[in-house]
Amino acid sequence: MNVPLQITMAADHPPDPSTSSRRSTTASPKAKLPAPFLSKTYDLLEEEEEREENCSGGGRIVSWNTEGNGFVVWSPAEFSEHMLPRYFKHNNFSSFIRQLNTYGKVELHDL
């Protein structure tokens, strides 16, 4: 089944600031960098958003949600087949969600 899913962090489990996906422009040697998984996920979302802005055709695969606190996987099958292998060493959507859960409670919502 290829149902769109909205993925957000649970309100009662705020993300750890040391694993934030925001990148510091004034990083010092002691500054904590975001975990590679979070950086790759952020880059994946930003790349897809840029692609959508530059293309008039084609369906969306993944995008930020309207609140900006999560993202929507519009096509989990295409996300797994095309997006995950470009950034990760697998194409398993369940593994991707499991990895997200290591950074806080993730909520999945069918749209």
UniProtKB/TrEMBL annotation:
<dbReference type="GO" id="GO:0003700">
    <property type="term" value="F:DNA-binding transcription factor activity"/>
</dbReference>
<dbReference type="InterPro" id="IPR036388">
    <property type="entry name" value="WH-like_DNA-bd_sf"/>
</dbReference>
<feature type="compositionally biased region" description="Low complexity">
    <location>
        <begin position="18"/>
        <end position="29"/>
    </location>
</feature>
<feature type="domain" description="HSF-type DNA-binding">
    <location>
        <begin position="33"/>
        <end position="111"/>
    </location>
</feature>
<protein>
    <recommendedName>
        <fullName>HSF-type DNA-binding domain-containing protein</fullName>
    </recommendedName>
</protein>
<dbReference type="GO" id="GO:0006357">
    <property type="term" value="P:regulation of transcription by RNA polymerase II"/>
</dbReference>
<keyword id="KW-0238">DNA-binding</keyword>
<comment type="similarity">
    <text>Belongs to the HSF family.</text>
</comment>
<dbReference type="Pfam" id="PF00447">
    <property type="entry name" value="HSF_DNA-bind"/>
</dbReference>
<keyword id="KW-0346">Stress response</keyword>
<dbReference type="InterPro" id="IPR000232">
    <property type="entry name" value="HSF_DNA-bd"/>
</dbReference>
<feature type="region of interest" description="Disordered">
    <location>
        <begin position="1"/>
        <end position="33"/>
    </location>
</feature>
<dbReference type="InterPro" id="IPR036390">
    <property type="entry name" value="WH_DNA-bd_sf"/>
</dbReference>
<keyword id="KW-0539">Nucleus</keyword>
<dbReference type="GO" id="GO:0005634">
    <property type="term" value="C:nucleus"/>
</dbReference>
<dbReference type="GO" id="GO:0000978">
    <property type="term" value="F:RNA polymerase II cis-regulatory region sequence-specific DNA binding"/>
</dbReference>
